[in-house]
Request: fold
Amino acid sequence: MTESDIWFQDPYAASRDGRRPGGPLFVPALDAWVVARHDDVREVLRRADDFSSANTLPMDEHLAPAVRAELADSVGGRRVVVNSDGAEHRRYRAPLLAGLTPARVEAAAPFVAEQAARLVDGFAGSGEVEFVGGFAAPLAAGVIGHLIGLDPEDVARAVHGTAQALVMHFLPVGEDRKIAAARDFAAMRAMFDDFARRRRAEPRDDLGTSLLTALAPGTGELTLDERHEVVSNLQNLFIAGFITATPLLGTMVLNLLRHREQWEALCAEPDLIPGAVEEALRYDTSMQSVRRVTKAPVTLAGVEIPAGATLMVMLASANHDPAVHERADEFDITRAGGGQLSFGHGPHACVGAQLFREEAGATLRTLTERLPGLRLRPEEPGTMGHTVIPRDGSLQVLNLVW
Reply:
């Protein structure tokens, strides 16, 4: 296995090497400084003034010209909450914080529980399910789509567009495939543009309207600049809620079923569910890392890093740091304490953390009550995507039987 392969095939093994005493390590295969220790990861995430988020997401201009041409006439492609800094970031973040308060998440809990139950109803009698496609993805998409205010048919279009964004920016496919993906992604942008203009004309009590009102105050027709900004942030909100929750739900169930005694304990003692969710987040987070770029020369853990350097900030590695987590590589739903960084830290900490916890809790309550005999199909490995950032956006396949 080459140096490059290990970061994509086994990021946990690679990050163990990265947690060396000497601090951040430059990895030529990634063309980035790898920050792997828990305390160093927290420091980078906290120091947003020194470590910019500008490179966290790829932008249209990073695409090949022929691919970028398919997006040229679409609305969107601007910076959003996750790849902006300073006042711009605070402006994008404020409506999300207001829209995802604990009270609003609590109000959505019955909908989340109903969706989980409905999905299980759809396959409970069959004795088998491919869990990612049959439960995790539709639950994650349905919940974030409901909060934004999307119609069900638009949720399906947004799911397809999200998959095309991953193809366009991350997957090693030919240019023709990327061009087709960009064309479909532009259609997703057009759908959100239509949604925003409809909400301008007829506001509703949903997160989409709240975000629109915050970013484009007033009642008049949206300007082109406002449409670019609103569509970018609506689209990002859906994608973030979908591609993070889907694999987290999948790996949570995968790891519980790999540790049969813990699954059975959970079925017997539902009070263990909150701890199981936290341990699932710590043990195998879908967002393995986030990118940052230095604004000026900086020293981190005694290591000098030049201006303009890319950092790969390894959230998953921080979650397995033995300096913070005893028996860090063991899965234990009775583990005491917290400290996991799956949702980040500091100014960019994930605003949807509580929403995911609600989705995960509803998932475990439904599955343990309805399908306590759930198990992995024999020889099921749980197929992961091969990127070091969002693991290709999903736990791709997870076949379960009962």
Remarks:
- The two ends are 36 Å apart (CA to CA).
